[in-house]
From TrEMBL:
Residues 102-149, 165-206 form the B box-type domain. Residues 21-65 form the RING-type domain. It comes from Patiria miniata. It comes from the Eukaryota. GO terms for molecular function: zinc ion binding. This is Uncharacterized protein. Signal peptide: none annotated. SUPFAM superfamilies: B-box zinc-binding domain (SSF57845), RING/U-box (SSF57850). InterPro entries: TRIM45/56/19-like, Znf_B-box, Znf_C3HC4_RING-type, Znf_RING, Znf_RING/FYVE/PHD, Znf_RING_CS. Keywords: Metal-binding, Zinc, Zinc-finger.
C-alpha cells in the first residue's frame, strides 16, 4: 500500500509540473512546441492566435513573450510534442490502474466488452480472459509480452505508450519510414529521398546522427548550467550588497541625527533637507539594485525552464524527434550561454556621513568610497553656510572658499 502511495504522489507531481497546459490548466491535448520550448494544446494555441492576430505570421508565447514564426497551416504545422503526449497517456493509464479502476477497463481485442485482465505490450491492447488464451495459442503471438493488471498496478511493470516507438513516415513517400539524416540539409529523410533528392549530399544513419546531436546538445546544456549558476551567484552577491547599502544608509542617517543633537546650528537648520537629499540618492540606488535583481531572476527562471525542457526531450524523445528539433534546441541553448548577468557597480553600495575640516566647518555625505563616478549621484554635502550640494564626481569637498 505504501508503494502505491509513493507512486501516486510521483504521478501527481509529474502531472502538475509537466502535463498541464498553462493556458487551459488541463492535461495536454495534442501539445504543440513553440520556438521558446513552451508547449500548449493545439486548440489553446489556435484560440490564442485568434485573440492576437488571426492573419499574422507570429505567435507570442503567453509565458515568456517570445515570438514563434508560423509557417504553412499556421499553428497546426508547429512541431508535435510527442514526449508530452506519450507521458500524458502513460500517467493517465497508470493513475487509472492505481485508483482501483481496473474493473472499468474493457478488452480491446474483441467487441464483447469483457473485463480486461491483462495487457499485451506488443499489440498495445488490454485483453479479456478469452483473448489472452487466444494470444497464447496463436503462433504469431506466442512471443508477445503479456502482463496482468495486477503487475501493472504494482508499478513494477510500467505502461509504455506506443507513441514512443512510432516511426514517422516520409511526407513525399508515405510508405517509407524516415531513417536517414542529411547533414547537408539538416533534415530527416527516407531511403527513396536519399537516392532521388540527396544523392550528392552528406548522409548519416539516424542512430549515429542522433548520438552526435545528443553530444552537441549535452555540451551546450553544461554551458547553460554554468551560466545559471553564475547568475544565481550574482543574485546572492547583489542581495548582500543591497543589505550593506541599507546598513550604511541607516548609519549615515544616525550620524546626521547625532550631529544635530550636538546643537550645531547650520546643520540643525538644514537637517530635513540634508536627509531628503540622502534619501533621494539612496532610493535611486535601490531602484538600480531592484532592476538588476528582477532581470537576473527572470533570466534564471527562463534558463531553468529551457534546460529542463531540453533534458526532458533528450530523455524521452525519439531519434527522429531529437534531430527534427535539433536547430530549435541549439538556438535556445545558445541564447542562454550568451546572456550575461546584470552586475551592480560595487561603489553604489558605499554611503557614509563624514565631518571634514578644510579651513571651515564642513559636513559631507561621502557616497564614493574614493571610486570614479559614472554620472550617478554619488554624494551630498552641507557647507558652512548651510547650502546643500549633490556630488556627481569622484569626491566633493565644500568649504567657505571653494568647491573642488
Amino acid at each position: 500500500m505504501a508503494s502505491n502511495v509513493t507512486v501516486q504522489s510521483v504521478l501527481e507531481k509529474i502531472s502538475v509540473d509537466h502535463l498541464e497546459c498553462s493556458i487551459c490548466t488541463n492535461r495536454f491535448r495534442q501539445p504543440k512546441l513553440l520556438d521558446c520550448l513552451h508547449s500548449f494544446c493545439l486548440q489553446c494555441l489556435q484560440e490564442l492566435r485568434q485573440s492576437q492576430d488571426p492573419s499574422g505570421t507570429k505567435l507570442t508565447c503567453p509565458l515568456c513573450r517570445c515570438e514563434t514564426t508560423l509557417k504553412g497551416s499556421g499553428v497546426a504545422d508547429l512541431p508535435n510534442n510527442f514526449a508530452f503526449s506519450a507521458l500524458v497517456e502513460e500517467v493517465t493509464m497508470q493513475e487509472k490502474l492505481l485508483e482501483g479502476q481496473g474493473s472499468d477497463i474493457k478488452c480491446q481485442a474483441c467487441d464483447e466488452e469483457n473485463q480486461a485482465i491483462s495487457r499485451c505490450m506488443d499489440c498495445d491492447h488490454f485483453l479479456c480472459q478469452e483473448c489472452q488464451k487466444a494470444h497464447k495459442r496463436m503462433t504469431a503471438m506466442k512471443s508477445h509480452k503479456i502482463y496482468t493488471l495486477a503487475q501493472l498496478q504494482s508499478g513494477k511493470i510500467v505502461y509504455k505508450s506506443k507513441l514512443r516507438d512510432e516511426v514517422p513516415k516520409c511526407c513525399k513517400h508515405p510508405d517509407q519510414n524516415l531513417n536517414v539524416y542529411c547533414n547537408s540539409c539538416e533534415q530527416v529523410i527516407c531511403t527513396t529521398c536519399s537516392v532521388l533528392d540527396h544523392a550528392k549530399h552528406s548522409l548519416t544513419g539516424l542512430p549515429e546522427a542522433a548520438e552526435k546531436c545528443k553530444k552537441k546538445i549535452t555540451e551546450m546544456v553544461q554551458k547553460g548550467e554554468s551560466r545559471k549558476t553564475e547568475m544565481s551567484t550574482t543574485i546572492e552577491e547583489t542581495s548582500k550588497s543591497r543589505k550593506e547599502l541599507d546598513t550604511m544608509f541607516a548609519n549615515a542617517q544616525k550620524k546626521v541625527s547625532k550631529k544635530i543633537q550636538l546643537g550645531i546650528p547650520k546643520i540643525q537648520k538644514e537637517e530635513q533637507k540634508l536627509k531628503q537629499e540622502m534619501d533621494w540618492i539612496y532610493q535611486h540606488r535601490v531602484r538600480t539594485f531592484e532592476a538588476a535583481q528582477a532581470t537576473n531572476r527572470k533570466e534564471v527562471t527562463q534558463t531553468k525552464h529551457k534546460l529542463e525542457e531540453v533534458k526532458q526531450l533528450m530523455n524521452q524523445a525519439s531519434c527522429y524527434k531529437i534531430l527534427e528539433l535539433q536547430q530549435k534546441l541549439l538556438h535556445n541553448l545558445s541564447e542562454l550561454t550568451r546572456t550575461q548577468p546584470q552586475q551592480v557597480p560595487e561603489k553604489l553600495t558605499f554611503m557614509d556621513f563624514e565631518e571634514d575640516y578644510y579651513g571651515a566647518s564642513v559636513f559631507s555625505v561621502d557616497m564614493t568610497s574614493n571610486m570614479q563616478g559614472d554620472g550617478q549621484p554619488t554624494g551630498v554635502c552641507c557647507d558652512s553656510d548651510g547650502s546643500i550640494f549633490v556630488a556627481v564626481c569622484r569626491c566633493l569637498t565644500a568649504t567657505d572658499i571653494e568647491i573642488q
